[in-house]
Design goal:
This protein has about 110 residues and is an alpha+beta fold. It is built from three helices and five strands. A three-stranded antiparallel β-sheet has the order 4-3-5. A two-stranded antiparallel ribbon has the order 1-2.
Amino acid sequence: MSKTFEKEIMGTKAVTRVKPTPNLNLTEPPLYRVIYINDSVTTMEFVVETLVTIFNHSPETAEAVTLKIHEEGAGTAAILPYEMAEQKGVEVTQLARNNGFPLQIKLEPAE
């Protein structure tokens, strides 16, 4: 988008358009891990469902991640920019609470 400047010179309007210079010093946003914490109440079926519907995992990948969460106590659902990771974490938490599950999600910087 260019800016327009008008100037009147001896009764005549002169229009000057100035194009902005792009900022090429952009950096990638930092990435964060969305981590599911295992508990004894949340069902494995629910975890698989959320991994498929919210994080777009295939059913096979979702089952593998769920098994890792179950066996190791925690597992990474996705690695995303902070805002996206936070939003997905909130979505999963709300869905869990609406279904009566105490599933906990945490975010930590990806390295």
